[in-house]
Design goal:
Number of strands: 11
Helix content: 10-25%
Amino acid sequence: MKRLLKIVLIVGFTFVFTNCEKDDICDPNVTTTPRVVIEFYSIEFPSVLLPVTNLSVKDPNITEAMLFNGVSKIELPLKTFQDTTTFEFTINSTATNGTKNTDVVVFNYATRDIYVSRACGFKTYYDLSSGEEGIVIQADSNNWIKNKTIVNTQIESENDVHIKLFY
């Protein structure tokens, strides 16, 4: 009887400890959904990076903006459950003398969800539409963004530049 009890306990403990799983915590080093990487260039000298002064970028439906100053490269999150994301890019956003200028930029893309792990869930990759449809700058008579180039239509990493904007 004691021998049977020992066997049952050993089998029971073995079963319990072999079925334990690691904690479901997503490692911070695991890459998640990448943001679109945009660089700003001079319209006169297209190979020269040009820092932007007091740039604010915001979704037209949200009051809070992301603020950037003196940078020539930014990273922006795209919506994962839609196929377009619209941002208002405002240069000289803190100016009070009327030099503030806003352009509306629309990103058009398809999404691909990639399973990462149980703890991390899914990440989304984006495929920008090619040609003129991938990035649309809504035109008015006073656009500060003069031109654009899609460098990489596949947004799978933040290590690559995806878009160049010229002003």
